[in-house]
Write a structure and sequence with these properties.
Blueprint lengths: L1 E5 L3 H13 L3 E5 L2 H10 L4 E5 L7 H11 L5 E5 L4 H9 L4 E4 L4 H14 L7 E4 L2 E4 L4 E4 L2 E3 L3 H12 L5 E2 H8 L10 H13 L7 E4 L3 E4 L6
Parallel strand pairs: 1-2, 1-3, 3-4, 4-5
Antiparallel strand pairs: 6-7, 7-8, 8-9, 10-12, 11-12
Helix pairs in contact: 1-5, 2-3, 6-8
The chain binds calcium ion (CA).
The site of calcium ion has 5 residues, from loops.
Amino acid sequence: MRLLVVEDEEKLAQLVKRALLAERFSVDVAHDGREGLELATSYDYDLIILDLLLPQLDGSEILRRVRRGNPRVPILILTARDAVVDKVAHFEAGADDYLTKPFAMAELVVRVKALLRRGTVRRESVLRVADLELDRLTQQVRRGGKRIELTAKEYGLLEYLMANSDRVLSRNMIIDHVWDQSFTGAMNIVDVYVRHLRDKIGDPDQKLIRTVRGVGYVIVTEEPA
Ligand code: CA
């Protein structure tokens, strides 16, 4: 899953990024309001963490503008302001949660995960496709009960496929969700990772992860008749 962090305090932004990377999310960081708005409206993020006091463009304004085009993306507000009236105003403007600085990284991570579970695509903590099982809380993957070790990117790719089972995902969509903005490599990175994933989950005949020629990939829940 791909997250956006809009935070102008560089040190805090890096701490947040590191905490989220450790949870295997892909993370983009914007250090001012303008960049934040541009990223938030350019990519299909799974969640946005938004500071309120930002140079160039205020977090409240970003919140309003993002909500106009995207009513669904979960938005967690970070701020030093803790006045009740502020909180009410931001919930009304479409924020989903609110964290007052200073905060513990562990709390941020818990809230992020809780918000992601609430969303509209598959947010269950355990995803299942055939005898393949992915547990988002423990980040363990099993097939037929047997544990499979994956790298962070392989895990991210499998989670994205399983959360969208039976839906064809283009290479572009996969890059957008599993890699972050710093990715500048070739599209065929996706093919390379799918190959690794098929090897590891034991899918040599591509019955689970199917190639859709010219488009991308889909993980299928049912065997064809
Ligand atoms: Ca700030």
